[in-house]
Write a structure and sequence with these properties.
The protein has 347 residues and is α+β, with helices and mostly antiparallel strands. The protein has 3 domains: 8-152, no CATH class; 158-255, 4-hydroxy-3-methylbut-2-enyl diphosphate reductase, catalytic domain (Cobalt-precorrin-4 Transmethylase, domain 1), CATH 3.40.1010; 260-347, Immunoglobulin-like (Sandwich). It is 21% helix and 34% strand. The protein has 8 helices and 20 strands. The strands form 6 sheets. It has a 4-stranded antiparallel sheet with strand order 6-7-8-9. A 4-stranded parallel sheet has the order 11-10-12-13, covered by helices on one side. Strands 17-16-19-20 form a 4-stranded antiparallel sheet. Strand 19 and strand 20 form a beta hairpin. Helix 2 runs antiparallel to helix 4 (140-152) and helix 5 crosses helix 8.
Length: 347
């Protein structure tokens, strides 16, 4: 075969969940992405909302079977020696569509070729093949080492649990329910006094409710520090559940920066600044509280952006400032706040 040699690696990745403005939910998934020649393979496949079969929420036996398959130690699950490398993040149904590839041995090397989008038993390369992707030839030793490491030590859990500090009733109760609905564990407590270190180390983030004072917040941070727990601390921007979910998703994202599509978000002077590393669909939603402290959401952009920096005007009430902007791609979410601007002086 003429495929050029490429390096093979693995990196943690996240498909961010969330509560959409229309009330729908998107499930949170942590998985291991394939890295070819130092960059995410998923990012090369256009704007694809998918996860690899090496997910953190599957049973160990299933993970082992997936790894053994990619090592060609078991029969291919699809005709023609094809394996699923990215599939639907909401279910495992091939009918939803999946990226498949032929995996084969050539001497001591492993070759991935004939990438295709597949929705049935057989792939149609003429209609749904990924032209310009692959074939990739991986040296056998590095390939086996990377995949074998998952079996020897899958690594620590991604911390898909969040500790909410404050009263159980009201906002935190609704937030906990929303987080659980998208696959993130959430516990509520007034403080962390007496909580054992091992339990604190099981959390990926701690979020403070609006009633938590400075003293309570400092005590919680000190308890996590003493436990040696590396957690993200989330200070809620506003009592709006979808916005808080987005903040927590951002805090939980462990995807290395070089593997991310959405790299920066700002909001200032009635404009959102968005920076993307590769072509992808970006959705912007503005959240604010009205005069009666009721949450309001406004979709301000939904379109495909090319790599680079983009400035998007915030329409209507969102342009007046005092709003919080959430940017989403298929794999990540960022949050930014636009400070309110004073009303012009009357002459």
């Amino acid at each position: 075969m003429s495929a050029a040699y490429a390096t093979f690696g693995l990196a943690p990745a996240t498909r961010a969940g969330g509560v959409r403005a229309d009330g729908g939910h998107q499930v949170h998934r942590d998985f291991v992405d394939f890295v070819v020649d130092g960059s995410s393979l998923l990012r090369r496949l256009s704007d694809l909302d998918a996860v690899s079969p090496l997910a953190s929420d599957i049973p160990p036996a299933v993970l082992t079977a997936q790894v053994r398959g990619l090592l060609l130690e078991s029969e291919a699950p699809l005709p023609g020696g094809r394996y699923v490398i990215y599939g639907c993040p909401e279910c495992e149904d091939l009918a939803c569509g999946a990226v498949t590839v032929v995996v084969e041995r050539d001497g001591d090397d492993y070759v991935w070729r004939d990438f295709a989008w597949q929705t049935g038993e057989r792939a149609d390369l003429e209609l749904n093949g990924y032209r310009g992707i692959g074939p990739f030839r991986f040296p056998g030793s590095g390939y086996r080492e990377a995949l074998g490491a998952l079996l020897r030590d899958p690594g620590p859990p991604h911390g898909r649990r969040v500790l909410l500090i404050g009263p159980r009733a009201g906002l935190l109760g609704r937030l906990a329910a929303a987080l659980r609905a998208i696959g993130i564990g959430a516990d509520i407590t007034a403080d962390t006094e007496g909580v054992i270190a091992e339990e604190l180390r099981g959390y990926g983030a701690v979020a403070f409710g609006p009633r938590a004072g400075d003293t309570e917040r400092a005590a919680v941070r000190a308890d996590f520090d003493r436990a040696g727990a590396l957690v993200a601390h989330v200070e809620g921007l506003a009592p709006i559940v979808p916005l808080l979910v987005a903040q927590i998703e951002q805090a939980l994202d462990r995807t290395p920066l070089p593997q991310r599509r959405l790299t920066r978000l700002t909001a200032a002077d009635g404009t959102a600044g968005v920076e993307v590393a590769s072509t992808c669909r970006v959705r912007l939603t503005a959240y604010r509280l009205d005069r009666l402290s009721r949450p309001r959401a406004q979709e301000i952009f939904d379109g495909v952006l090319e790599p680079g920096s983009h400035r998007i005007p915030l329409d209507g009430r969102a342009a007046r400032g005092g709003v919080h902007v959430v940017a989403r791609t298929a794999g990540s979410v960022l949050v930014a706040a636009d400070a309110p601007r004073p009303a012009p002086e009357q002459g």
